[in-house]
Give the backbone structure.
Amino acid sequence: MPELPEVETVRSDLERKITGHKIKSVKVNHLKIIKGSVQVFKKILAGNSFKSVSRIGKLLIFKLAKGDYYLLLHLKMTGQLIYQKGRAVTPGGHSNLALDVASLPNKHTHVIFNFTDGGRLFFNDLRKFGYLKLVDESGKLQAESRFGVDPLSRAFTPAGLKNLIGSRRAPIKNILLNQELIAGIGNIYADEACFLAGVRPNRPTSSLKPKEIANLVKSIKSVLKKAIKYRGTTFNNFRDSDGHTGNFLKFLNVYHRAGELCRKCKKAKIAKIKTAGRGTHFCPHCQSYPSVIPAEAEI
DNA sequence: CTTCTTGTTACTGA
DNA sequence: ATCAGTAACAAGAA
């Protein structure tokens, strides 16, 4: 499930690997993955190159060198962007190389960028929720305008989060997952940040104390930074641009640990409920919930 | 077999 | 108008 750290890992890799490489052709195996005209898509990209790779929230933005064009690319839940160097011998010995780059394309490969130097960029997506869309500058600005504050930016402060919460009464997790408010947090890091802050994800925002809001901001920044450092979290599907898994899994405190012992208090078992329509994990001992609010039923 | 998984959007209803 | 909850999307894993 690519969230901000996973998308950022792919972005920084690709910026280094493919910018300036001339695209020879683009092969589209699954038409629905391309939003808009596939014919125009191929025509604009052939002979062009990527000038830069940026990101807003979980959305990748490739700026094209020629013309007023940007390629918007969303990995959604199972999208992968894998780069294969031209005529390079695949070096062995990587313990976390869970995807055989040499075997690409595979049955989940929907788009292939062929570079003139023989390199190839594969867009794979098991569930076909991801998309690629060519837009002009105004389309890019429009897309960007839908996203809220970058949680790693200096603009994301306790006062800023309090302002975003406003008069909302939904669980705090809903706010953290709302891309129009904060851009890039998904289910994994929402749960992990709430754990680090000692706040239950299903706490109504109105019940949060200033200290807890400040802790959340600090926790969000720290967990995202650390996850970027370890190149993201892989459960099943996420791979970086080399086909490697992320290395953050071992640092997860609550996500995907339902029924297991809390690593902090070593007393309580991690509970799992449904909040914001998503599986939600927390330690009943370490994450506070005011007694005046009736608890939600556990799954 | 059924249930659950998630990022995003469309829809529904308060 | 605003806000929150849920179904839908696809293709699995458990």
About this structure: The helical segments of chain A are 4-18, 38-45, 137-145, 158-165, 172-177, 187-197, 210-229. Residues 77-78, 125-129, 167-170, 174, 236, 276-277 of chain A lie near DNA strand C (CB under 10 Å from a C1').
